[in-house]
Amino acid sequence: MTIETVLLGYLDQLYPTYAEVPDTKPDRYLVIERTGGRETNHIAEATFAIQSYGQSLLDTIEMNEAVKSKMDHFADLSEICNCRLNSDYNFTDTETKRYRYQAVYDIKYYRNGE
Fold first, then answer.
1. pLDDT for 92-112, tens place per residue?
2. Which is higher by pLDDT, 37 or 93?
3. Which of 10, 82, 98, 106 is the least crowded, having the fewest Cβ atoms under 10 Å away?
4. Diameter of the chain by CA atoms?
5. 74 by DSSP, 3-state: which?
6. What's 60's domain CATH number?
7. What is d(CA 2, CA 51) in angstroms, rounded to the nearest whole number?
8. How many structural domains is the chain composed of?
9. How far apart are alpha carbons 27 and 48 in whole angstroms?
10. Smallest Cα–Cα separation from 102: which of 55, 43, 54, 41?
11. Residue 60: CA count within 13 A, CB half-sphere
12. Packed helices 3-11 and 57-71: angle between N→C axes, nearest 10 degrees
């Protein structure tokens, strides 16, 4: 199981969560994007952007806060070593004109359940 699969399943408990923007867009949804990573001594680290899409700027801010509260407990999973908020900010999609907020996380985990 990949870290992407673990994160998708975890956040999907909160809002519909995708690895890319879906063709049919719900009113509220999340998109995760891996922006980097590395591995040292069988401990992998990945940086993820978690994008909250909502109906208004306030809606996306509230979604982002819910994501941060949920991610505070991500390290409770046995395969996760550490989960740290790197930054979060307004990231409204100027191309689609959809409101979006983004939280960036650094996640350390055991690769392939090792």
1. 988 888 899 999 999 999 876
2. 37
3. 82
4. 44
5. helix
6. 3.30.2000.10
7. 19
8. 1
9. 22
10. 54
11. 22
12. 120
